[in-house]
Design the sequence.
C-alpha cells in the first residue's frame, strides 16, 4: 500500500513537471531539445530513458525544384513511424508544424517565390498510445525564385498603339511593363498588371518603342524576377500600296488600291505631269474611285495617301500611276471572207465607241475614201471589180460632242479573183472515155473544160457544166488526151485562171495476175484477173519463152484449161484482152509470160495403220498414174528406198520390226511406151506396229465321267475388246492313259456339222462343240481338251480341264 502511494505521487509529478517530454494519447507537443525523453514503467513504477535519446534526423536537404515547389528529403530513423515537418521565416523565428508524414521526403506546393524559408524535422514513434520523439534535425533553408517572362512579343500594332503578350510565370502575382524609345535608352515602368497582355496607347506615329517586363510575387515584401528579353515595335501609318489603273475610257480613269490598316479614309491627288503640281481630287472611304469627265488624248497622273485620327494623321503618298486617255483603235481588223466581187471585213468591239468608219484605197499608201459608217463590227463591201486589189482601214468614234475619233487601224488588203478549180484529176478512164472531177469553186456559176492532143498544143473547149465532174466519151483508143479547166461567174462572165493540166492515155486494160493454177499429167489450167470492159481474152502458147507464140484459145472466161499436153514438157503462155467497137476490135497489151509443166500430181491422202506384225499404207489415186512406188526409211530425214511398186492404192509392209517407227512416202508413176514419168513424192507419213492385246476370257467344261464319249463341249466367255476365233482342230487328252487320247474336230452345236472356225465377238460368249475322231473314248474330270484359237492376229493353244483348270500359250512359229 505504501509502495503504490509513492508511485502515484511520482506519476503526478511527472504529469505536471515532465509533460513536455512525455506525451500520451492526446497527441504530440513540443519539448526542449536538450532534455531527455523518459518512459514510465507502469508495472514497477520506475522511469526509463526514451530509446530515441541521442537519435536525430540526419541528411535533411531542401531544394527548390520550381518557382512554386520545394522538395525536402532526409534519412530514416530506426523505429520512427512518422516525421514532423516544421517551417519558420527565420532561423530563430517561431517554427510551425506544417505536416506529419510517414515517408522520408516531402514536396511543398504553392510556395511563394522570393522569401527564404527554414525547415527542421523530428522523428515520431507511436507505441502503447504514447508518442515518443527524436531530437530535431539540423536547420536547412530554401527559397524559390521567379523566372523571366517568356515569349514576349508584339501581338498587334496600330498607328498609335502597341499590344504586347507573354507567357504566364509560375508563382507570379503580377507583371511590371517597362518601355523606352531606344534599345539603350531609359526604360520607364508604364504598367503593373496581373494579365499576360497589355496595350500601350496614345503613342506617336512613325516612331519605334522598346519593351521589357518582369514578374513579381508578394509575401511580407515584394520579390521580383529577372527581366524578359527586349522587343521593339515601330508604329507606322503606311502609304496605300497596289495603286493601279483598273480601267480607262476615252474620258475616265478607274483607280483601285489595297486597304490601309487603321485608315479612316483616302485622298486622291492628280496632276498633268508626273513631277507637276498635284491637286486633290476627292476624299473617299472606299478603296476604288473613277475619275470622270476628263479630256481625251491627254495623260493624267494620280497618287493617293491615307489619313486617320483626331487630329488627322496622314501617310506618305503612294507612287504615281499614269493614264493616257484615248478612244482605242479597232483591233483584229481583218478580211473575213472575199468573193470575186466582194470583201467581208470584221473587227473587235471598241469600248465606248458609238460606231466605226471604214475607209478604202486602191493602193496601200494611196488616198483612202470613206466607204461607210456602221455600228456593227462587220461589213461586206459589194459590187467590186474582179482581179483588183483593195486596201481597207478603220477607226472608231464616240457619241460625244465634239465627236472623238480613234487612230486608224492597220491596213488590210484583198485581191478579188474567181478561184481556179482545185483537185482537177482523171477520176476514171476506159478504152474510149475519160472521167474528170474537181472541187467546187466558191461563187462559180459553172466550169469550162478544154482539151488538146498534146500538152502544149491547141486546146478546144469540150463543154460547159455546172457540175464538178464530166465524162468525155467516144474517144480514140491508144491515144493520149490533155485537159484543163476554168470556172466562171456573173451575168457578164468573169473567168478564173486555168487549172493545172491532166492527161489520160486510153487503151484496153490488160488482164492481171496471169498464173498456172492447177496441172495434171497432160493439162495446165490458167487463171487471170478480169480486165475492165474487156469483151474477151486471147490465150497464146509457145514451147520456148522467146519463141513463136500461137493463139490456142479465145474466151470470155478468166480461165482456160489446156489439155492433151505432153507430160514433163514446159509450155509458155501470155494473154491479152480485147474490146469491139462497131466493126473494129481493140486489143490490150500482153500479160507477162508464165510457164507450166504437166506433171503427175503428188499422191494425196497417204495414211498408215499399224497391225500386230505389219504396217498398212494407203493413198488416194493420181490422175494419169498407172503405178505407185512405196519408199521407206527408218528416220524421217534418212535415206528412202523403194520397198514396193504396185498398181494398187495400198500396201501392207510385213518386213518390219514390232514397235519400231518407219517413215513412208509414195510417188505416182506413169509409163508410156519406153518413157517413165514420176510425180513428186507425197508428204512423209510415219507408221508403227501396234501392241498385241492379250486374250482375256474364261472357259467352262464338264466334270462328269463318260466312258464312251462321242463329243465334248466348252463354254467360253470373251472379256476382251477384240473377237476371239476358235479354230477347227483340237485334241482330247487323258492325263493317265494315252490310249484314251483322241483328235477333235469343231462342230456346230446345233447342226452337228463340221466348222473351220467359230468367232466369239468382243464382250460375248458361246458354246464350242467338238466331235471325237477315231471312235468314242473315256472322259472324266481329269481329261484335258486342247483347242486352237486366234486373238488379235496371234495364234494360241488353249487348255481346258475341270480338274487342272484352264490356261493358254502362244503358238511357236
Sequence:
Amino acid at each position: 500500500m505504501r509502495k503504490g502511494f509513492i508511485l502515484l505521487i511520482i506519476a503526478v509529478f511527472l504529469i505536471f513537471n515532465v509533460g513536455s517530454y512525455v506525451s500520451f494519447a492526446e497527441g504530440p507537443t513540443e519539448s526542449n531539445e536538450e532534455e531527455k525523453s523518459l518512459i514510465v514503467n507502469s508495472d514497477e513504477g520506475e522511469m526509463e530513458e526514451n530509446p530515441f535519446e541521442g537519435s536525430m534526423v540526419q541528411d535533411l536537404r531542401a531544394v527548390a525544384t520550381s518557382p512554386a515547389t520545394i522538395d525536402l528529403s532526409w534519412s530514416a530513423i530506426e523505429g520512427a513511424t512518422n516525421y514532423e515537418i516544421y517551417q519558420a521565416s527565420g532561423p530563430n523565428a517561431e517554427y510551425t508544424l506544417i505536416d506529419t508524414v510517414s515517408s522520408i521526403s516531402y514536396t511543398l506546393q504553392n510556395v511563394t517565390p522570393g522569401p527564404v524559408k527554414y525547415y527542421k524535422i523530428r522523428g515520431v514513434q507511436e507505441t502503447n498510445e504514447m508518442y515518443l520523439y527524436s531530437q530535431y534535425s539540423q536547420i536547412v533553408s530554401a527559397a524559390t525564385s521567379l523566372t523571366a517572362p517568356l515569349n514576349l512579343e508584339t501581338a498587334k500594332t496600330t498607328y498609335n498603339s502597341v499590344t504586347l503578350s507573354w507567357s504566364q510565370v509560375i508563382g507570379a502575382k503580377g507583371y511590371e511593363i517597362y518601355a523606352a524609345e531606344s534599345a539603350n535608352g531609359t526604360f520607364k515602368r508604364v504598367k503593373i498588371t496581373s494579365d499576360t497582355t497589355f496595350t500601350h496607347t496614345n503613342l506617336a506615329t512613325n516612331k519605334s518603342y522598346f519593351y521589357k517586363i518582369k514578374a513579381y510575387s508578394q509575401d511580407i515584401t515584394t520579390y521580383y524576377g529577372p527581366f524578359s528579353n527586349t522587343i521593339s515595335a515601330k508604329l507606322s501609318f503606311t502609304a496605300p500600296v497596289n495603286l493601279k489603273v483598273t480601267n480607262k475610257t476615252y474620258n475616265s480613269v478607274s483607280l483601285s488600291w489595297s486597304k490601309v490598316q487603321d485608315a479612316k479614309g483616302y485622298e486622291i491627288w492628280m496632276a498633268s505631269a508626273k513631277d507637276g503640281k498635284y491637286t486633290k481630287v476627292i476624299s473617299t472611304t472606299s478603296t476604288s474611285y473613277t475619275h470622270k469627265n476628263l479630256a481625251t488624248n491627254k495623260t493624267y497622273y494620280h497618287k493617293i495617301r491615307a489619313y486617320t485620327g483626331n487630329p488627322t494623321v496622314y501617310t506618305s503618298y503612294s507612287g504615281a500611276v499614269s493614264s493616257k486617255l484615248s478612244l482605242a483603235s479597232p483591233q483584229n481588223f481583218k478580211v473575213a471572207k472575199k468573193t470575186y466581187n466582194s470583201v467581208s471585213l470584221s473587227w473587235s468591239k471598241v469600248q465606248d465607241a458609238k460606231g466605226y468608219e471604214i475607209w478604202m484605197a486602191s493602193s496601200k499608201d494611196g488616198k483612202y475614201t470613206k466607204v461607210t459608217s456602221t455600228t456593227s463590227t462587220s461589213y461586206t463591201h459589194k459590187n467590186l471589180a474582179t482581179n483588183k486589189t483593195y486596201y481597207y482601214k478603220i477607226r472608231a468614234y464616240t457619241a460625244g460632242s465634239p465627236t472623238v475619233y480613234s487612230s486608224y487601224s492597220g491596213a488590210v488588203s484583198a485581191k478579188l479573183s474567181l478561184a481556179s478549180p482545185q483537185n482537177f484529176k482523171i477520176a476514171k478512164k476506159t478504152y474510149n472515155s475519160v472521167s474528170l472531177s474537181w472541187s467546187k469553186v466558191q461563187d462559180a456559176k459553172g466550169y469550162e473544160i478544154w482539151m488538146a492532143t498534146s500538152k502544149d498544143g491547141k486546146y478546144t473547149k469540150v463543154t460547159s457544166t455546172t457540175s464538178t465532174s464530166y465524162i468525155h466519151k467516144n474517144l480514140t483508143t491508144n491515144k493520149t488526151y490533155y485537159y484543163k479547166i476554168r470556172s466562171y461567174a456573173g451575168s457578164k462572165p468573169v473567168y478564173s485562171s486555168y487549172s493545172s493540166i491532166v492527161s489520160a492515155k486510153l487503151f484496153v486494160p490488160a488482164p492481171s495476175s496471169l498464173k498456172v493454177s492447177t496441172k495434171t499429167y497432160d493439162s495446165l489450167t490458167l487463171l487471170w484477173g478480169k480486165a475492165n470492159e474487156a469483151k474477151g481474152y486471147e490465150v497464146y502458147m509457145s514451147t520456148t519463152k522467146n519463141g513463136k507464140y500461137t493463139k490456142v484459145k479465145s474466151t470470155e472466161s478468166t480461165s482456160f484449161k489446156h489439155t492433151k499436153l505432153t507430160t514433163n514438157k514446159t509450155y509458155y503462155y501470155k494473154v491479152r484482152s480485147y474490146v469491139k467497137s462497131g466493126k473494129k476490135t481493140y486489143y490490150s497489151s500482153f500479160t507477162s509470160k508464165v510457164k507450166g509443166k504437166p506433171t503427175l500430181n503428188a499422191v494425196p491422202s497417204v495414211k498408215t495403220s499399224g497391225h500386230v506384225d505389219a504396217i498398212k499404207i494407203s493413198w488416194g489415186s493420181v490422175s494419169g498414174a498407172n503405178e505407185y512406188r512405196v519408199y521407206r526409211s527408218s528416220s524421217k530425214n534418212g535415206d528412202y528406198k523403194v520397198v514396193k511398186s504396185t498398181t494398187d492404192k495400198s500396201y501392207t509392209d510385213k518386213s518390219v520390226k514390232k514397235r519400231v517407227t518407219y517413215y513412208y512416202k509414195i510417188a505416182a508413176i506413169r509409163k508410156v511406151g519406153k518413157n517413165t514419168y514420176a510425180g513428186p513424192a507425197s508428204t512423209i507419213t510415219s507408221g508403227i506396229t501396234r501392241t498385241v492385246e492379250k486374250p482375256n476370257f474364261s472357259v467352262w467344261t464338264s466334270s462328269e465321267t463318260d466312258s464312251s464319249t462321242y463329243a465334248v463341249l466348252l463354254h467360253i466367255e470373251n472379256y476382251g475388246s477384240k473377237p476371239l476365233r476358235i479354230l477347227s482342230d483340237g485334241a482330247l487328252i487323258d492325263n493317265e492313259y494315252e490310249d484314251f487320247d483322241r483328235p477333235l474336230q469343231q462342230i456346230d452345236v446345233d447342226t452337228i456339222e463340221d466348222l473351220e472356225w467359230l468367232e466369239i465377238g468382243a464382250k460375248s460368249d458361246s458354246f464350242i462343240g467338238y466331235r471325237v475322231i477315231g471312235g468314242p473314248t473315256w472322259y472324266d474330270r481329269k481329261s484335258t481338251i486342247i483347242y486352237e484359237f486366234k486373238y488379235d492376229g496371234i495364234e494360241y493353244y488353249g487348255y481346258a480341264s475341270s480338274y487342272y483348270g484352264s490356261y493358254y500359250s502362244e503358238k511357236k512359229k
User: Anything to note?
Assistant: The two ends are 153 Å apart (CA to CA). Residues 325 and 335 are 29 Å apart (CA to CA).
